[in-house]
């Protein structure tokens, strides 16, 4: 085994071998696995959420929980099984077809099969009526952090997996005006989550008649655009359900002005799922791995000791590690999420004059103060000072060199893949000069900071990275959306995966006609949403559908969608 072969083997296991611009979905699926966000499970379409991904989701939960607490949203927990799905079948026709059902308890069949929740509406609304009987109980706001299951045909990790984590919020009001205000209030919270936490610009808009939740008054959504591949991702939604669902589930309160008269409650629903992490990967990931915004990164700064094998003696090595530990502790005390990257495989226990080294393929080696006088312990057998001892020493030195070469490559590739914002590289000479070199993942460049005010300078740099990520992606978003008024040009651009803003009449039949014509040409594009920010100088134009004669109501966003 040579060092060259070892490095190639390591690169095959860690680095990406699919380009984002060549095979977008292939690149994405490889990245979420190799960056340790998920791992495959024995059941197709189901995935193990690894600590790196779950830490990101916990940050989302914390941020959203604080905003919900400010406006009085209370958390609840609901069962996994969903009765009364028959009441929602006509409104969730497609969703009902993707629902898993419990049919047996052990070997015995269940008389009436029970749905495993694809969404929590039936669970909430079946009890909502018992919770709200008086106008004094309103407004009513509850939130449910849950997991849901759907039998999706072509699952994509995070984006559309068969089991996924999500946040579902439900509110009830005495009048329509308050329910409408709630819809936009929650949409603004989602907008702030993406811009402030994820550093991703979004497009807020209204969903079309075809895209809205069936039975609702209207639905709003947040769209994230991946500009390089012209892909739209629905990142969150907030819906006004009107009174249709409250009538279906008998959710009402007694009218205080007319005792005995029942008033049906106005309901809203708002939701964000772990799809947000998939959108983050697609937006910022590159051919080297993830790029995480500092506010969301589980680790903001990683410290890697350099020059350990060049230290003159074990005392220098010990002093280097000791100082790095002190730097790491100070960074943590300042509020930064910092970590030393000293793997157990390299250094298991550091004491003056001693260093233990272990690899998966090598025996234990105990090195004393002078490496020229090694003491070997292989399988508990003490070897004498013989030719056999010299043979073992030379063999171990060769394999140790190969292993250290691989581990250095591992540290670099691994941290690039996982998207840690800043990587510090500290050696003895840096401690002496007080100048600390670092790699910034987003800029993909190196710079130097002063050790004396390292925590303060890192905070400034992290804040700048977060701001620049949002600015650059906002500019890319604005540049990628094209105005299109001609049908032939509309077809041509969508074939090249463009994101288009085109005039639209707003009618359901017209939208279905547009999608049908696109599908007949093999174009997997659709109406994404109707942006709140509309162009001012283009009204009076003809609907983009050449068969439509209706008046244009607004401009709609068209493009590819993978969810």
Automatic annotation (TrEMBL):
Record GO cellular component, one term: aminoacyl-tRNA synthetase multienzyme complex
Domain Aminoacyl-transfer RNA synthetases class-II family profile: 54-293
MF annotations from Gene Ontology: ATP binding; proline-tRNA ligase activity
InterPro entries in UniProt: aa-tRNA-synt_IIb, aa-tRNA-synth_II, aa-tRNA-synth_II/BPL/LPL, Anticodon-bd_dom_sf, Pro-tRNA-ligase_IIa_arc-type, Pro-tRNA_ligase_II_C, Pro-tRNA_synth_II
One biological process term in Gene Ontology: prolyl-tRNA aminoacylation
Keyword terms of this UniProt record: Aminoacyl-tRNA synthetase, ATP-binding, Ligase, Nucleotide-binding, Protein biosynthesis
UniProt keyword Aminoacyl-tRNA synthetase, yes or no: yes
Annotated protein name in UniProt: Aminoacyl-transfer RNA synthetases class-II family profile domain-containing protein
Organism placement in taxonomy: Eukaryota, Metazoa, Ecdysozoa, Nematoda, Chromadorea
